[in-house]
Amino acid sequence: MHNEFPEYRGELEYSCLGCGKKFPADELYYTCPDCKGVFLLNDKKFENLKEIPGKKWQDIFDQRTRTKKNALRGIFRFYELIAPVVEEEDIVYLGEGNTPIITSSPTLTKKIGQPLAYKNDGQNPSASFKDRGMACAFSYLKFLVRKKNWGQVLTICASTGDTSASAALYAAYVGDPIKSVVLLPQGKVTIQQLAQPLGSGAVVLEIPGVFDDCMKVVEYLADNFRVALLNSKNAWRILGQESYAYEVAQWYDWDMQGKAVFVPVGNAGNITAIMSGFLKLKKLNIIDELPRIIGVQSSHADPVFKYYAQEPGKRRFAPVKVSPSVAQAAMIGNPVSFPRVKALVEEYERVGGPGIFNVVQVEEQEIIEGMLLANRYGHIACTQGGECLAGLIRAKEAGLLDKDELAILDATAHSLKFIGFQQMYFEDSFPPDYEIKPKKEFINTPRQVLGEQEKKTLQGREFTLEVGNRIVEILGLSKKEG
Ligand code: F0G
Predict the structure, then answer these.
(1) Is the CB–ligand 1 distance for residue 387 below 6 Å?
(2) Protein residue whose Cα sits closest to atom 11 of ligand 1
(3) With 389 labelled, which of 101, 352, 400, 442 sits at a CA distance of 20 to 30 A?
C-alpha cells in the first residue's frame, strides 16, 4: 500500500486575496489577471478529504514513510494536501524534505531555560527550505510542459540567494525545455549562494540594489513577457513549503499540543505555507490542536513585526527601507506574501484563539550570537536559524510561552552558506551599519603553532618533536603514567 501512487485527484483553483476572484489552475498565473492581487491555491474538493477520518490519514502518511517510490519520497508523501493534480511521471524528487528535527543539546536547553529543537532545513539538496517549494513548482511546470507541449520555458526569480540556488538546481536536473535565469542584488548574496546557480549553469544576472528592487524587475518581466516566475509569489511554491508543517506534525506523532513553531520572516512565503499547512491538518482532524506560530524579524527588516505591533483594528501595512542584516536572506522590506500572512493569521486566530500567533523583533547582535551559540552546542544553524533562537529568547522574556512549551526552531538554511558572517564576527570586521560588536566569549580563531620560516630549519623527526612539544605546551598536556 505504501508503494502505490495516490488515486485521489483534486480540483485546484487560484483564489485572489485582493478581489476574491477564482481561476482554474490549468494555467500558470503569478498574480490575479484582474487586480494583480496575490493568489493562494485551494482544492475545491478538499471537503471530500474529510470523508477519511484523521486517524486514517495519519496511517496513510505514516505508511508512506516506507515507500521506495521516488515520487512519494519527498514532499509528495503528503500528495493529497499539496498538489493532487500532477501525475507520478511529472514529480521531480531531488532528496528534498524529511529533514531531521534535532533536540537541542542538553547544555543549550539548560542555558535557554526552555525545551527546544531545531528542524534542519539546511539539509535539503540545495541546503535551504526553498527546495520544498521548488519541487512542487517544478513538478507542476513539468506537468504543464507535457500537457501543453511547450517548446521552451525560461524560469526567472529574484533572490537573496537561496531561491536562486534552488531554482537553478531543479532546472538543471529537469533540463530541456526548461532553462533557469536568476536576478540577484549585487554583493548581497553570499559567495556560497552565488556559486550555486553558477555551478548549475543558470544565467545569473546581477543589479545594484536590494532584493526588493530585483523583485520589481522580475514582476515586470513576468507580467509582460514569456517567463515563468519562480518566486513565492507563484502559489505552487507555497503548496510545496506546506510540507514543513506536515513533517513537524508527523515527527511528533501528530500531537502539536504545547508546541511553538518559530519562523524567520523575509518575503513571508515560509510562514504563510507553515500556517496554511497546519490549518489543513486541523481541518482534516489529523491534528487536534494548532501549534503556536512565532514569526521573527530583525530590527533592520521588520515590516511584518511593525504591522502586528499596532493595535488590532488600527493596523496599517507599510514597507520599510532595509539596512544591512546578517539574516541577509530575510532582508526584505516589502514582503510579497504579506496579504497571505494577514488572511491566514485571521483564520489561524479564529481556529486557535488569541495568542496563537505572534511576531517578535530581534537585534542584529542577537541574531549572529544566536547562530554562534546554537552551533557551539552542535547545531548547524544559519543566521536565519540564529534569528529563530534570538526570537525564542525574546518571546520567553516577553512571557509569550508556557513554561514547558517545546520551541521548534526553523534552521532554514545550512550554516555553511552564511559562514562569512561568522568570519566577520571573529575578525571584528562588520561595517558600522550592522551594529555588531563581537564578544570575546564567542570568538574562535586558528592558532599558528609554527611559522613558515621556522619550518624550514626543522627536518624529519625534529619537526615532529618541536611541533608536538609546542602543542603540549598550548594544551598543558601531562605525560602518560608508566
Ligand atoms: N531563511 C532563508 C535561509 C531564506 O533564504 C529566506 C528567504 C528566509 C529565511 C525567509 O523566508 O522569504 O519565505 O519569509 N529567502 C528568499 C530567497 C527571499 O530569495 O532566497 P521567506
Answers:
(1) no
(2) 266
(3) 352
Q: Is 260 helix (H, G, I), strand (E, B) or coil?
A: strand
Pocket test for ligand 1, best of 382, 384, 416 (most atoms within 8 A of CB): 384
Using CB atoms within 10 A of its CB, is residue 316 exposed (0-12), middle (13-18) or buried (19+)? exposed
Q: How do the domains of the chain map onto residue ranges?
A: 101-124+238-441, 448-482
Say if pTM beats, i.e. exceeds, 0.85: yes
| Ligand 1 pocket check for 303: Cβ under 6 Å | no
Q: Which helix (H) or strand (E) holds 471?
A: helix 460-475
Q: Tell me, which fold does domain 101-124+238-441 have in CATH?
A: Rossmann fold (3.40.50)
What nine digits make up the cell of 253?
506523532
259-264/406-411 β-pairing: parallel
Report how far residue 107's alpha carbon sits from residue 22's, in angstroms, rounded to the nearest whole number: 51
Report in angstroms the alpha-carbon separations of 256 from 205, 247, 315: 43, 12, 30
DSSP secondary structure string, 419-464?
HHHHHHHHTT---GGG-----GGG------SS-HHHHHT--HHHHH
